[in-house]
Amino acid sequence: MEQNGSTIWSKNFTGLVLSNGFFFGGFHMLLPTVPLLASDMGGSKTQVGLIAGIFVLSSVITRLFTDLGVRKLGKRNCLLLGIVISLFSAALYPFAPTVETMLWVRVLHGVGFGIGTTFYVAIVSDVIPATRRGEGLGYFGLATTIAMAVAPATGLWIAKEYGFTAMFAMAGSWELIAGLLLSTCGFSSAPTSAPHPERHEAPAIGRRSVLDIFVEPGTLFPAFLVIMMGIAHGSVINFIAVYANELHLANPGYFFILGTGCIFLSRLAMGKVYDRKGPAWVVLPGVILLLTGLVTVAEASTMEVYLAAAVLHGFGIGMLFPALQTATISDVAPQRRSAASATFSNALDIGLGGGSVLLGMFAQKAGLPSAYLCAAAVMGVFLVIYTIHLMNQKGLLGTEPLPEEE
């Protein structure tokens, strides 16, 4: 399924972009609203963090079986299965009367999300020409970016005006549209099987270490950086609506709209910079902006400062996310991209969920501003580690552009 031409916007790529946008829209609609519902039901900040954490644990465990899924069903059918499970989960939320019951629904939803996120990236990486993968994944992520802008604000508005049940129905309808759009794509569901001599190959099963089971060989360093990025990003998306309520700020949805607009702008430009100049030109400014945004949100007391934090956070994540995703996918053989995609998604979810649990517990004791400063400190560590890495080697996380595949 590897595409050899130079055109990015094929029929399959366009269908995947639109399907991915609606899939993530259904997910992002629940990001600020489910924690808000749990808080309204009397849940503590620790329980709000657990709602994110249990979701992540379910996603991570599910992705350990993605290779088996590819062999049995193929990439396309696996992706469709993830969409169906996500749709079913959205329908179950209104029947969760307690925070404890909601946790079980989150487990099921995590299964669907884990499958979907893995195979969207794996499939679209096969569709995009190799020499334009950074640019193509940047464009692919624009659908996610738009969903991040529209869906959280839409979910918060629907929940406020019509109730949480109506909001869950809307989230489910977006998952349904994602499945219908996927059905318009004409690619095969069979996995790529041809070997590639210049990419990392997976060790034979008998020689695989415990680490190899969780992390695709050749992706350990970018996965470590993704975890730290996930901690920083999770501290924002999982608690920002609750934080806005504590600050008595109206319309917390503006944070998502403005921040995601900045993500959109950065993705438009940074994919080409990545391909032509190398990852460092994207990663370093992204880290600095994200760190500054976390410090700013910790100091927020007015809507103006709150929105300034949204701008900094948006540009930072808009640069970092596609750069680390492209680095993770590009240094493996084509037939291992499902596994590399699973590694990226697992690392991100470990950061998002694990960070949410730990920062939620910390916020319960010290408050959300202190939790945001802790997340900023994590990005400070990221900056130090990455700078040391640049001084020691070049490559997919250095200053060289991507090599062309034969």
Automatic annotation (TrEMBL):
- InterPro entries, sorted: MFS, MFS_dom, MFS_Exporter, MFS_trans_sf
UniProt key word Nuclease? no
User: Which Pfam families does the annotation name?
Assistant: MFS_1 (PF07690)
Q: Where is the Major facilitator superfamily (MFS) profile domain?
A: 1-394
TM region positions: 12-34, 46-66, 78-96, 102-124, 136-158, 220-243, 249-268, 280-299, 305-324, 344-363, 369-388
Annotated Gene3D superfamilies:
MFS general substrate transporter like domains
UniProt keyword annotation of Transmembrane present: yes
Q: Which GO terms describe its molecular function?
A: transmembrane transporter activity
Protein name (database record): MFS transporter
